[in-house]
Amino acid sequence: MSAAAGTRMAERFSVRFVVVAGMLFLAVTTGLMALLSAGIPVWLTTLLLCGRGLAIGFTNQPLVVSLLGGLPPERVPDANTLFSVVRRLAGSFGIALLVTLLTTRGAATGSALTGHRETMLVLAATALPGAAGAASLRRPGERSPLVRRPVSAPDGDRRGR
């Protein structure tokens, strides 16, 4: 549901705006999860988790649409597969690192709650560079200054040599 809403918002505003807003909202809701304790009502925990889900929907789907939108149709399946594989691998490594942090900090402090709080703060802090990176997204059709335009050879060859 949030992925569809994120795509509609990106069409209305821009991918850059929606992804930056999603990453900032993800940072805030994740940071607030550091405040959770045994006395927090379940509805508040649910609200924070739903907020995180909304934020993730506002980041992932508009990014995929943006990344694949400028490709020729015959390259979209391969690019989508590559993006999915990279996202899943990075997520697996990230989860492993977060679980390691959670367990080691919990053991070092003698409190699983302290480990949870520190892990949530680290996770929230990682969303901020994501927002900064999203702020550098280009609009469709914009060229990166690092991409060279093909040079026409005298015989009409456009291989960029």
Task: Using brief descriptors, characterize the structure shown.
mainly alpha, 161 residues, 0% strand, 5 helices, globular
Number of helices: 5
Query: Could you give the distance between the termini?
Result: 47 Å
| Percent in helix | over 70%
Written as H for each helix and E for each strand, in order along the chain, the element string is: HHHHH
| Rg, nearest Å | 20 Å
Proportion of strand residues: under 5%
Mean pLDDT: 82
**Count of β-strands:** 0
Largest beta-sheet characterization: none
Content-based structural category: mainly alpha
Shape: globular
Oligomer description: single chain
Write the layout of secondary structure elements.
Elements: H1 2-12, H2 15-33, H3 42-69, H4 76-109, H5 112-134
Helix pairs in contact: 1-2, 1-3, 2-3, 2-5, 3-4, 4-5
